[in-house]
Design goal:
Helix content: 10-25%
Strand order of the largest sheet: 7-4-6-5-9-8
Number of strands: 26
Oligomer: single chain
Shape: elongated
CATH superfamily of the largest domain: MoaB/Mog-like domain
Structural class: alpha+beta
CATH class of the largest domain: Alpha Beta
Number of helices: 7
CATH architecture of the largest domain: 3-Layer(aba) Sandwich
Radius of gyration: 31 Å
């Protein structure tokens, strides 16, 4: 049985980035660049005005100079005029600097009198001019492979006229819930039966991780039916199952996977909840067999499956950095495994503390919904007093998680 860190490292070694596909720029948000991006030209492409004002020759214009206005240059027009001694060109932001001019005097620093302008300041050469190539030079790499594309990356790509870009293909992830007790939404309530929550929850988690969920029909506790569904799931880049991986007589998932040629890398991890999780590899498919308990399924997905999907999707940093936060209450560790404690983060004076988000029994899904993060409580034999600093993995981006002492 590997430790939590050993299990995650092993999974990440097995999960490799997928192939490359080309997508339209408008469809690239949240994708990972597959190649370095190099600019074909300077940016800006020419010297241009950073202000609305007057383009002048600084060396010819002491404060108080009165200059003849030679013309008007709005953005989008070629610089088809020149500025000589004693003249100025009215210019708007973004317009190219006319030949002869070496600075721009803003409107608010000048007075217009019919077709002349009086300067109220002493111009300085280079003032309010964006120099050609000051942002990017032709041939310069401006985004490296592995970059996650967000709005600012799209802005830069659009500025160099990219209409399509190569990105890492998103993992296709099959999701299979197992068990005779499960009902589909819309089916009538029946004694001893429960509605499947793992399927919808894991599909949402897969989508949130930037992958494509493929929800398979529920597999009942029948070897032939389970085999058929698992065979279908193994055609995907990853397969995530829930339930059927413990030691009961109807826990058939691992046995059927072995019959299908899957190589089991480990079964059980030193965490609570989530200990009976299994991980296997079948050809190019990574197989994650999660516990059936909804809390354990979601916690093991968050900490062990999500990083693998991010690696497969090309992310350079697949694991999320944890934050060191003091406990706000005493906690009794498990003696033999890491406890995944659902916590909310509360501001106490000038720092955050991690408090229980509710009942920690694995049947309380609501406690997970109320949690800001997962505190990783190391194994031990003694009670950890309030104030003990532990690692906390954020579950969602909430304002209070970023506050407090660093």
């Amino acid at each position: 049985m590997p430790t939590f860190d050993e299990a995650r490292d092993l999974i990440l070694r097995c999960a490799a980035p997928l192939g490359v596909e080309v997508v339209a720029l408008d469809d690239s948000l949240g994708r990972v660049l597959a190649t370095d991006q190099v600019s074909a030209w300077d940016l800006p492409m020419w010297d241009n005005s950073a202000m609305d004002g007057y383009a002048v020759r600084a060396q010819d214009c002491p404060a108080g100079s009165v200059l003849q206005i030679r013309g008007f240059l709005p953005a989008g027009r070629a610089a088809d005029m020149s500025v000589v001694r004693g003249t100025a060109a009215k210019i708007l932001t973004g317009a190219p600097i006319p030949s002869g001019a070496d600075c721009v005097v803003p409107f608010e620093s000048a007075e217009v009198r019919e077709d002349t302008v009086r300067l109220l300041i002493q111009p300085v050469s280079g003032a309010h001019i964006r120099i050609q190539g000051s942002d990017l030079h032709a041939g310069e790499c401006f985004l490296i492979a592995g970059t996650l594309v967000g709005p600012t990356e799209i802005a830069v790509l659009a500025s160099v006229a990219r209409t399509s870009i190569p990105v890492i293909r998103r993992p296709r992830v099959a999701i299979l819930s197992t068990g005779d007790e499960l009902l589909m939404p819309g089916e009538p309530v029946a004694p001893g039966r429960i509605f499947d929550s793992n399927g919808p929850a894991l599909a949402a988690a897969v989508r949130e991780a930037g992958s494509i969920p493929i929800t398979l029909p529920i597999a009942r506790d029948d070897p032939a039916m389970l085999r058929k569904q698992l065979e279908q799931g193994l055609l995907a880049d990853a397969l995530v199952t829930s339930a059927g991986v413990s030691t009961g007589e109807r826990d058939l998932v691992r046995e059927v996977l072995r019959d299908l040629g899957a190589r089991e890398e480990f079964w059980k991890v030193d965490i609570q909840p989530g200990r009976p999780m299994a991980f296997a590899v079948a050809g190019d498919c990574c197989v994650f067999s999660l516990p059936g308990n909804p809390v354990a399924a979601l916690l093991t997905f968050e900490l062990l499956v999500r990083p693998a999907l991010r690696r497969m999707g090309g992310h350079l940093r697949p694991t999320q950095a944890t934050r060191r936060v003091p406990l706000g209450e005493p906690v009794q560790p498990r003696p033999d495994r890491v406890t995944l404690r659902r916590v909310r983060l509360e501001q106490i004076e000038d720092h955050l503390v991690a408090m229980s988000s509710g009942q920690q029994a694995t049947g309380f899904v609501r406690t997970l919904a109320y949690a800001d993060g997962i505190a990783l409580i190391p194994s031990g034999t003694e009670t950890l007093p309030a104030g003990t600093v532990v690692d906390v993995h954020a579950l969602r981006q909430r304002g209070d998680f970023g506050g407090g002492a660093q």
